[in-house]
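Problem: given the chain below (211 residues), write out its structure.
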Amino acid sequence: MDNKTIPIKILYEDNHLLVLNKQAGQIVQGDKTGDKPMSELIKDYLRIEYNKPGNIFAGVVHRIDRPVTGVVVFAKTSKALTRMNEMFQLKQIKKTYWAVVCNKPKQDKGLLKEYLFKNEKLNKSFVTDEKDSRASLSELEFKLLGASDKYFLLDVNPLTGRHHQIRVMLAHMGCPIKGDVKYGAPRTNADGSIHLHAHTITFMHPVKRKK
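Solution.
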């Protein structure tokens, strides 16, 4: 194996962080499928690229769903991972997504607030009300960017980090994401993806302290 055969697309790398463009179908962290996750692919890459023997550190900072594409950050040191985790907890990291949806939203932009709970068995989240003890408040901002004959492109800024929140909240307002049959789209995409892309992530570098 050489690095040309390892299926990762690097957007940025330094001594502390590795930022990748995740492809549809890739998993960030190991799960019950047993498929090789990106965290292990990174270890293969680092082992070959820098001729590193023994154990290699590749810390998972955050995750995006298997059918979703886009930017994912990994930490190359435990120090960077700890600081990135702190920034996520303090909501000092901003993420934006692009979503292609099946229906036009009633408004061109807005703030959505819903109470969501996750059904572990179904691996699916549902909208409920604030009286539901299982639920957590979820918030996101959206803006209409463009349209074709059938579909509409939204810019989405999640303000919380709930399970499947963009998918379930857009579906709840009548705008399921193209290909996302789990949340109401009429048909799947041929490659199993959904039209949700993690477009940008913005934060202060955990060591260099630069944006």
